[in-house]
Amino acid sequence: MMQVRKIHVSTTVNGEPREFLCEPGQVLSDALRNNLEMTGTKEGCTTGDCGACSVLLDDALVCSCLVLAAEAEGRRVATIEGVAQDGRLHPIQQQLLEHAGLQCGICTPGVVVAAKALLEENPDPSEEEVRFWLAGNLCRCTGYDKIILAVLAAASEIRGA
Amino acid sequence: MNDSVKTDFKYVGTRPVRPDGPDKVTGRAKYGADLNLPGMLHAHYVRSPYAHAVIKSIDFSEALKLPGVIATMTGEDLPEPGDKLMQGAEIEMKLSDMAPVVMARGRAMFHGHPVAAVAATSASLAAEAAALVRVEYEVLPHVIDMHAALEDDAPLLHADLITTGLDPAPTVPSNLSVDLALEMGDVDLGFADADVVVERTYSVPMCHQGYIEPHAAIASADETGRVEIWCCTQGPFMVRNFTSQLTGIEPGKIKVTASEIGGGFGGKTTVYIEPVAAVLALKSGRPVKVVLSREEVFRATGPVSCSETRVRIGAKKDGTLTAIDIDIVMDSGCYSSSSIMPATMFGAACYRCENQRSRGREVLTNKPRVWAYRAPGAPQSIMAVECAVNELAEELGIDPVDFRLHNAVEEGDIPVFGLPFQAIGYKKALQAAKEHPHYQAPLGPGQGRGLASAFWINSGQQSSATINIALDGAINVLTGNPDIGGSRASMALLAAEVFGVPVETVHPTVADTDSVGYCDGTGGSRTTLATGGAVIQAAEKLVLELRHRAAAIWGVDLDEVEWVDGKAVARTTGDLENLMDAGAAVQLENREMSLVELAETSGATGGPLSAVASLHAHNSAPAFAINICDAAVDRETGKVDITRFTCIQDAGKAVHPAYVEGQMQGGAVQGIGWALNEEYLYDENGVLENPGFLDYRMPVASDLPMIDTVIIEEPNPLHPYGIRGVGEVPICPPMPAVATAVNRAAGTALYDLPLSPPKLLAAIDRAVE
Amino acid sequence: MARVIFTSELERLTGESEVTVAAEAYRDLLVELCARFPKLRQDALRKQALAIDGIVIQEPLLETFDADSELIFFAKIAGG
Fold first, then answer.
1. Which residues, 6+ apart, have CB-to-CB distance to A41 below 8 Å?
2. Least crowded by CB within 10 Å, which of B221, B469, B528, B717?
3. Judging by DSSP bridges, how do beta strands A76-78 and A7-13 pair with one another?
4. How far out from the chain centre does Cα B504 lie?
5. B172 phi and psi, to 5 degrees?
6. Domain range for residue C25?
7. Is the confidence metric ipTM above 0.85 for this complex?
8. Is there contact between A and B if contact means ≥3 C-beta pairs under 8 Å?
9. Contact: chain B with chain C (3+ CB pairs below 8 Å)
């Protein structure tokens, strides 16, 4: 076997400097989960179709399974672990709980990260806008109904605050 | 109704935040693939590139040359299954139909069938090593289509397979594994008596449960041979039981811890990877992690039978049904599974009709062995019956709800499967559908409406619960049922109700198989009913114990102490010594001791407050559901829009109504996906062409409207809290509701699901001609 | 005497849709039925649940029933 040398990556995750060694072909979701032990980012497909691995990379919403870990060098990564701040849930997280917007919960971290990105871009989305924004986040349990209601309620709460 | 069924609740029926919620919205919750152990190896499968082949030899020598490749496995590492039955399985299953699903032995039966596995120090190294394993195959003819598999000259999957269910049994083997029939009355006479008869054939495609979390497991073994398994499963005790029988490891040497589970829908009520992880862990002496890729999940787990159902239904002019004849053929993949039985039994369970016949045939093909999906078998046959009923009602000019009300089963009616109905809420649900604003609303231009009913039996099975009360009165509830959709919240509500304390003081835990009594899996719509029943019983034991303790403290008889709203209350008069109050005489009447006070003093009154209950639940009761669907069809593209959708269901007592609604909505959307898009597509070589979420198209948020829900609460007369079971029936009515709506919107008669754009466009063209 | 109602599947083996039995316990019921209907087999019956007066018992080994009970052998269904 050809011994491939690992790549050293310096990056910022949720505002904190982090370093790891990754294989050249390793994807960011894998590095987050297995090198940095941040397993809140989930892997449902590793082909960019389910959205469970959604993170922000320099403020852009991406499927971290479609980003090479080495591409995180010098960039900012924001994951689900950084959404609740100072022991307080983000309104999206709280509203998902209030609305029973999760059943098994495996898609929830990706939904939270994606919905937060939506509300930062559009604080007052319509139902249709929420549905199209979250079209990249597969949920097999809920039929989406209560997720949509939770995101709309969170938007309203944030606007009111 | 039975007087012993409780109808007045304080906590049950409210909607608290689930106890595991914060961990699940923050990413802290640990799912199957979220655990890593020191020194852990990663396993990778070698899978068959052929749909049917003899495995002549397996050579690991090149793979083992790679530094870091530690252990290998083939089907020969599992004991010969012989003709034993799986012990402790909920239904009859042959070990010889289970073992080769885990790892092929001698023959690969489908493309993607596991043939070998290697364990190495990293996942990428394991994948590289697996690619170096040389397997010599002798390719055999294969058969993918179930109709082709029934032809006389079809390749035989199993040379010794004799059809069961026929008397006399056939003398020659075939791919027809089961042929069963149920009958009541005289169907021929019934049709002779009919004024109108509808006859049609309906097809439902092979699909997948589509849980978002791929299967994942870690096994480790100690030097005594004791194995610990961490995995995502609907049933940790099932994993212990199945892994033991498939590997030969004694069950007492296996401890299974269920991780959080990222969906299952029936698909995680069996094992695929756990025995492989256990064998490799024993062979290597290291922890071994197995995580399937999405492609592997599609190719080699789960799928759900495709079916073809011919239905013939006759009715009098006034709508009275005279005869129902169902003939369903289902594809079980390469080994016999079980859902042909419920498919045959339950297709017409909503209807009172004295002349009924139902034939069910199960066929084997070179595809992965099918497995349970939410009310297994029922959606396929209900699809056919409900579409035919809608057509019949239309032909007779009778409103579809009125037609169903006229023929609906009720208490005392005996269906074709023989078991008389007890109190059921079907007619109430139909009435609610009729009165619903959706049903009253006019349709928009180009829209069609479909309505469908469904029945599912629901199961009970075995459950246990342990409750420990902490010194501050906090209530810890342990069960063995993974929380797949909010069951911790239900367990907490049930315990809170019995103790009369706020639900926030109850802390439910999903315990491992060493730490709690046996529980059948989270499936069969049974957890709230059966495991909840065990929680109720354990809590009632503790309430009795708390009354004993209070009686001892107050020096009164047990029957002088009541338990009211989380407190012991003395129902006696007179001054008596209070043992806890330094001998001071106190007025006892209506004196109270709270749960907290009793817990604090428990060390002095008999020791820890702890109780266990276990049961075999015989009190399950069926569920009925109705869907109303409005659809619009784009006549240029063939794309369907579901414009409005309503679910009505008799849930019995809804313990946490938000999660009941969630089950209804989730099941509805799975059914919508199955009706419109989801489909396994095989090429001529038996290779699945769409093993990913891009091409296996499950519904996404932008495909759907809000899903309205109405919960009917007809209490289950057999359950102390009137609980019925909720989770499965929601997937039964959507396919016929959607198909009827789409056909009415498009002016078509397309009953070959899925109603995908190309098929629908062709049907529209045919209808125009 | 308890009544046993055969579903059509079992009726094909017994030739009767309904019989009365002297048995008052599950184990005696199996012996009695198999003696009366040679095509019935104990191991096949044991794979089924028994509904006693409408209540399905998955594992009826130790069950007893009343003289006016209605008994139905019923396929075990696990669900998903």
1. A29, A32, A33, A52, A53, A54, A55, A64, A79, A80, A109, A110, B27
2. B717
3. parallel
4. 29
5. -115, 145
6. 2-74
7. yes
8. yes
9. yes
Q: Which of A67, A84, A54, A73 is nearest to A25 (CA)?
A: A67
Beta carbons of C55 and C79 less than 8 angstroms apart: no
| Residue of A38, A103, A126, A146 to mutate, interface with B, max B Cβ within 10 Å | A103
User: Across C15-76, where does the E strand assignment appear?
Assistant: 18-21, 49-52, 55-57, 70-74
**For chain B, what are the domain ranges?**
21-28+460-617, 422-456+621-769
Place of tokens 């009859």: B92
C-alpha distances in Å from residue A51, one per residue of A110, A113, B479, B694: 6, 10, 32, 12
B188, containing H or E segment: helix B187-192
Q: What is the CA radius of gyration of chain B?
A: 28
Q: What is the mean pLDDT of residues B240-254?
A: 97
| pLDDT, position B768 | 86
How far, in Å, CA of B268 to CA of B265, rounded? 7
Query: Which residue is closest to B18 within chain A, CA to CA?
Result: A97
Q: What CA–CA distance (Å, rounded) separates B499 from B564?
A: 8
Tell me which CATH code domain A91-160 carries: 1.10.150.120
List Cβ neighbours of A15 (8 Å cut-off, separation of 6 or more): A76, A82
Could you tell me the end-to-end alpha-carbon distance of chain C, in angstroms, rounded to an integer?
38
Q: What is the pLDDT of residues B37-51, one digit of tens each?
A: 999 999 999 999 999
The class (CATH top level) of B422-456+621-769 is alpha beta
- Domain B21-28+460-617 is found in CATH 1.10.10.10: no
Does residue B588 have a pLDDT over 80?
no
B200: amino acid identity, one letter: R
Q: What is the DSSP string of B400-431?
A: HHHHHHHHB--TT---TTS----S--HHHHHH
Tens digits of residue pLDDT in A92-127 = 999 999 999 999 999 999 999 999 999 999 999 999
How far does the CA of residue A74 sit from the closest CA of chain B (Å)?
24
> For residue B587, what pLDDT band results from cuts at 50, 70 and 90?
low
- Dihedral sign from CA coordinates of B279, B285, B291, B296: negative
Predicted local distance difference test score (pLDDT) of residue B580: 54
CATH number at residue C17: 3.10.20.30
Evaluate whether B725 touches B455 at the Cβ level (below 8 Å): no
Residue B532 neighbours by CB under 8 Å, 6+ apart? B490, B491, B494, B655, B721, B723
d(CA B125, CA C38): 61
- Structural domain count, chain C: 1
Which amino acid, residue B533? G
Would B21-28+460-617 and B422-456+621-769 be classified into the same CATH topology?
A: yes
- Which residues of chain A are within 8 Å of residue B25 when distances are taken between CB atoms? 84, 89, 93-94, 96-97, 102, 105, 108-109, 112
The answer to whether the beta carbons of residues B745 and B632 sit under 8 Å apart is yes
Beta strands C2-5 and C70-74, pairing class: parallel
Q: Say yes or no: B2 contacts chain C, CB-CB below 8 A.
A: no
Provide, rounded to the nearest whole percent, the portion of chain B with pLDDT above 90. Answer: 94
Q: Does C36 fall in a domain?
A: yes
| Averaged pLDDT of chain B | 96
In this complex, the residue of B25, B128, B699 whose CB is nearest that of residue A97 is B25
Looking at the domain that runs over A7-82, which CATH code has it been given? 3.10.20.30
Which residues on A lie below 8 Å from B692 (Cβ)? 45, 47, 49
Q: Is B612 left (phi over 0), alpha (psi -120 to 50) or beta?
A: beta
DSSP state, residue A46: S
DSSP string, B99-129: HHHHS-SSEE-STT-EEEEEEESSHHHHHHH
Cis peptide before B170 (omega within 30 of 0): no
CA distances from B128 to B117, B124, B507 (A): 12, 6, 45
Terminal Cα-to-Cα distance of chain A (whole angstroms) = 58
